[in-house]
Amino acid sequence: MKTIKKVLVANRGEIAIRVFRTLREMGIQSVAVYSESDKDARFHRLADEAYCLGGTTSRESYLRQELLIEVIKKSGADAVHPGYGFVSENAEFAKRCEENGIIFIGPKSHVIHALGDKIEAKKLAVKAGVPVAPSTPDSIDDVKEAKAFADKIGYPVLVKASAGGGGKGMKKVERAEEFESLFQLAQAEAISAFGDGRVFIEKYLENPRHIEIQMLLDEHGNGVWLNERECSIQRRNQKVIEEAPSAVVTPEMRREMGECAIRLAKEVGYTNAGTCEFLVDKHMKFYFLEVNTRLQVEHPVTEMTTGLDLVREQIHIAEGKPLSFSQSDVKINGHAIECRIYAEDSENNFLPSIGKLQHYVEPQGLGVRVDSGVSQGGEISMYFDPMIAKLVTHDSDREKAIDKMLRALREYEIVGVETTIPFCIFTLEHEAFRSGQFDTHFVQNFYNNRTKKEPSTEVKEVAAALAALLSEKQKKVSTLNHVSQSTPQPVLNYPTTNWERRKTYR
After folding, report:
1. pLDDT over 90 percentage in the chain
2. Is the predicted pLDDT of residue 459 greater than 60, yes or no?
3. What is the dotted CATH code of the domain comprising 108-132+206-333?
4. Taking the mean position of all CA atoms in its chain, how far away is CA 235?
């Protein structure tokens, strides 16, 4: 077994802070990396060391594998935690870590490679006896051949990028006459997003729910599933609200899905944390979707209902330790809901809303957790994902968890950008959500077709008063700045070059 002493977190924002916190609790030193556009961000100030990667975009910073390896060596870190996004599911980066004697806190590179290709992952699922939806056995590039297959299995169908994720390179085809144009569009998107234009055809499941199983597997052949997460509230095929457990999954279905997930994971030699995702049709039959070979954004709802720290478990597995518990030890404690608070305008097709957080106060209270990487005065940048925070509530049952979430959402104070808070409130108050009778089309079926309400007079008055207060505050700050120009000001020196090192001592 190995002992991890220092971890570089190859990520930013709230997930970097999330990992730093567990590292500190475990007595493990932490190393942050950040781009020039993140030089004033909060997250890297919470690490023991921080290195500037330069650049402003992710391609110029967090995706530069050779630079990340160089920083790991420079800092003396013996392990790297990739978080999610960026290099977290990049088999090449995991392999580079392995070749350089760096512990990658996640599955082995060959596992990431095998499961990162949707077609190969489906073949593994079939081999492991996991249900899959009807689809072409391999990628297909001839549009006439592809259309013939679609005609055979019947519409609607999905054209999906083999190397896809996050809804990119995926098109739903309702009618035969639109197949060719959407097929070519999916190919073009796949090339643009992944540099890989391979696509395949899959039968579209009507009224689908998106339900996933959290897994943990060690290097000693042990594997457990940590119940399910319901992730059906989505926009642009990306999740916004998740909960654990699902309102519709029975104990028998839960066990069957969990056992399928572990069988598939063991088929490919999976170790560490991972998520097996399924689509569930209107008849409550489930079909394999994909495996995410990393920690999920929505992992807090699993932590809240199991009492486990998934990052701590990841580190223990990476050190070669066996799981400290078995499947029979895994219980469901109450109910948890997560709302992703994005800087997006839900009234305008969820378009990003960039800008400065002029006023920012997070909700608090018993059973409320906020994973965030921002603070008042911070910027929501155009260069990265517009997530502000993940708001999580936990209570003894689903109804109480929903009511607590509504309270917390209304307690949140954010001025300066539009957010998804109004959408989250709408969803949690809607009868379809409260009853558990919803699917991945919730936004199209209910939100986009709703009758929009004008803000009340009281709300308008409060908004106007707050705007006036902020304006007055800004004038005072400007005046103070003008008066103090002749007074020497303290200078805060943070690293601006690639390898300038900053240490903090606590």
Report:
1. 84
2. no
3. 3.30.470.20
4. 14
Give me the active site residues, please. 294
User: pLDDT-derived band of residue 194, with 50, 70 and 90 as boundaries?
Assistant: confident
User: Do the strands 209-217 and 272-280 form a parallel or antiparallel pair, or are they unpaired?
Assistant: antiparallel
Residues 6 or more apart from 297 whose CB is under 8 A from it? Answer: 15, 84, 239, 340, 390
Phi, psi torsion values for 341, nearest 5 degrees = -90, 100
Q: Which fold has domain 339-451?
A: D-amino Acid Aminotransferase; Chain A, domain 1 (3.30.470)
Lowest mean pLDDT among 102-116, 165-179, 362-376, 422-436: 165-179
Give domain limits for the chain.
1-105+464-506, 108-132+206-333, 134-203, 339-451
pTM of the model: 0.86
Architecture of the domain made up of 1-105+464-506: 3-Layer(aba) Sandwich (3.40)
What are the residue ranges of helices labelled H in 268-342? 299-306, 310-318
Kindly list the distances between the CA atom of residue 96 and the CA atoms of 4, 6, 69, 80, in Å, as whole numbers in the listed order: 18, 18, 8, 12
Long-range contact set of residues 189-194: C-beta below 8 Å, sequence gap at least 24: 189/161, 190/161, 190/162, 190/163, 190/164, 193/161, 193/164, 193/168, 193/169, 194/161, 194/163, 194/164, 194/168, 194/169
Tell me which amino acid residue 316 is: H
CB-CB neighbours of 130 under 10 Å? 22
Percent of the chain with pLDDT over 70: 89
Tell me if 1-105+464-506 shares its fold with 108-132+206-333: no
pLDDT per residue as tens digits for the range 317-356: 999 999 999 999 999 999 999 999 999 999 999 999 999 9
Q: Is the pLDDT of residue 304 over 80?
A: yes
Which structure tokens are listed for 218? 């060690």
Peptide bond into 245 cis (omega under 30): yes
Average pLDDT across the chain, whole number: 91
**DSSP strand pairing (387-395 vs 502-503):** unpaired
Give the CATH class of 134-203: alpha beta
